[in-house]
């Protein structure tokens, strides 16, 4: 397709048809701050932080929602744009608590980033009482905490729930200053359609949604992302396990919505995202056990595997290969299950293969 | 329709119904039947006459005698004197400024004399529930003309020639808007009527839907034909039950007459029309929010592009116009665009309906040619300021509009002239204010409205209007700071610059215009802790003039807060800490010894 040539901040950019100004700018390596935008969900044009000046357009336009046009001349950091952007962030900050020290989003907070970029320490319009919205913390569920006092109403959680999780468990409620994100009227999260998949938590640009288990487990800059496959079921969701490089322990699990290899395209369920604590459980079996005289004792892998191999060989010799059955799990990966059935069929010589989902 | 020697028209609009016109209607029908006159005199329940403040209104034809504030108890006399003996009941006729003995044809009354009714032409003349009466007034003639003699392009050209612009407030040229939708590719298109009238004090759309619903439907049919749409929605606020009832009846009748449905008038043009009731959100008057609401989602605006003409309702090309715009279309097609364009100013053609309210003698709906001055509307049509007080300002264009002063009274009203002075045409709300109105308080009122109705989507509107309201509230309470005015100007400018939709982009207008034209009032509140109009209760003090007080104790007896003390026949004193500023004492004082400061 014919590229669309436009100029952003004096730089010529060849955009693809259908691109927005924001996408074109990113393609050309030009940064435009955003808050309500996320590539995985539909555009809202709500936060007004990405406003840019387009020559011959009397109004400032949101870069996230405005399509590129041939010959367009865009200014992303003109004095007019910067003044507007500063005003918008000042307004968002009127009621946003500045408790960044203790906030779990410190270091990954997108509002913090925009304010830093614009040199805003606090809103000049904050009056006494403005930052004390009296929303009670919603933490009845075991997975995440909703703190509506920190919510900037960008609506990313709503769009994630609607377009990624497809539950539409939450939406805006009330009007004016009382607008909030909430499950259906009269219901709390625990009695709504929410499945606690936590995609909203990952997409929240601030600290309004935070995972309970990751509190205190590490600051964003201490974490190393390790790509892995979820071990809960056979779907094979790709997960990014965030490991604290200092403690070697998991801090939380995220997903990559832009990963070209992920079958889940960034989606995952409550177990994949929130049920990772078993990794560090004291009750977890980390070494093989051998049962002797009715009691288990710890053993080395070599000893345990030799024992199993010896017993299988003996049973096969005495009773034939069909005396042995292999039982796998839907929680193993496809590759693991494939190897198991090869072991059964090619090494032992039996077709007795089954898995837990048959139970 | 039978032949009658006289027609008695009773207003059945919401205003007159609430002041008792239904009872008058029943009494008339009953009374005439009892007298055996029901075969010679026809009683018709019509739509709004516009002069709602004088309701219930009864007009007797062919004389055109205009009776106002008629009650059921007046009916026997009306029948006996006027309808039986042919003598005007003088005590019930409209008196206005003139003498009771002159009984003009009601169109000669000042309120009606200067008006030029196109959109409202049938309101008050016909029974809105009767399609036959509409047809008798050339109704659906434009549709027949368009379907049989005109191509869709020719219809659009006619509307373009007329210079008609969106009457909902935006003022976008209607013909041009239609051409966008007509050009948009798609096998399915929608036309939508925005009847989510929400500006405080504006009720022209309601009156049109109640008084001449077929005109709106005919306008939509013409638009649908011109743009190639075969389905339409009327998005009407649920707070207008009578309008919805009449619209339903209208759709039934038009369908029955083959004017809605498949193969209209035997042509290939088909059109299906639905009514969608709104749920009470002001922002649903914004077109993208309105469409979201029709689709069953929360009514919140979205950025444009894509424009509705390309991606509207359910992603299909759609065209939205408001009630008044649609109602003008049949007359334009019937009489030609040139006819319409002959009225008005260079860029604002035709007429506009204004809802005249506030401190004016005759409140109601007035339709005047563009270019009429505010002075003509307020002083000639509206009969001047109530109780002989001094004119102070007029708030024009609803919560998105601005406050104009006596210096603007002679501005010929047009989209351009109003925006030049910081106001907007809006939907046509005109709130008249006198010397007792505090302009800071007025600005605060409109900000309360816009803040409460902000959908909450974008920070400038949600947070910004709240902060402006906070500042106005503290100024009215005498706690304003000198730097507050600068903050209001900064916030107002930035909210206009950065808001997502028209609601936010215009919300600061009442504040910015009052700051521009009545800055001294703001300064008095802040620097002198004084409300010059005496309207802000927290800045008002009631003080008894000891020299005038006769010690009658009346004030102390009516005071609900026991704030007044004093011995009989001795001057009384108001305890300012206890006073709740209700003003009951000042009203009760027989010697006007209590000053409001």
Number of helices of chain A: 8
Strand segment tally of chain B: 17
- Residues in helix, % of chain A: 10-25%
N- to C-terminal distance of chain B: 63 Å
Distance between the termini of chain A: 53 Å
Oligomer: heterodimer
What percent strand of chain A?
A: 15-25%
CATH class designation of the largest domain in chain A: Alpha Beta
Provide the descriptors you would attach to this structure in a database record:
heterodimer, A: 359 residues, alpha+beta, Ubiquitin-like (UB roll), N-terminal domain of TfIIb, 3 domains, five-stranded mixed beta sheet, three-stranded antiparallel beta sheet, 8 helices, 24% helix, B: 597 residues, alpha/beta, Glutaredoxin, Rossmann fold, four-stranded mixed beta sheet, 24 helices, 14% strand, globular
Question: What would your notes on this structure say?
Answer:
The complex is a heterodimer of chains A (359) and B (597). The longest helix of chain A has 19 residues, at 301-319. Chain A has eight helices and 16 strands. Chain A has helices at 21-27, 79-93, 110-118, 156-165, 199-203, 270-274, 301-319, 334-348; strands at residues 4-8, 11-15, 51-54, 61-62, 73-75, 144-146, 171-173, 180-182, 209-211, 223-229, 238-244, 250-254, 289-292, 295-298, 326-328, 353-355. In chain A, a hairpin with an 8-residue loop joins strand 10 (223-229) and strand 11. Chain A is elongated, with a radius of gyration of 27 Å. Chain B folds into five domains: 6-108, Glutaredoxin (3-Layer(aba) Sandwich); 131-341, 3-Layer(aba) Sandwich (Rossmann fold), CATH 3.40.50; 351-434, Ubiquitin-like (UB roll); 439-527, de novo design (two linked rop proteins) (Up-down Bundle); 541-596, Alpha-Beta Plaits. Chain B is 39% helix and 14% strand. Chain B contains 24 helices and 17 strands. Chain B has a five-stranded mixed sheet. Chain B has a four-stranded mixed sheet with strand order 2-1-3-4, with helices on one face. In chain B, helix 6 runs parallel beside helix 10 (213-227), helix 9 packs across helix 10 (213-227) and helix 17 (439-453) runs antiparallel to helix 21 (509-517). The A-B interface holds A 43-48, 51, 60, 62, 65-67, 83-84, 87-88, 91-92, 94-95, 125, 127, 152-153, 155, 171-172, 174-179 and B 281, 283, 298, 300, 302-303, 305, 451-460, 462-467, 470, 487, 490-491, 494, 497-500.
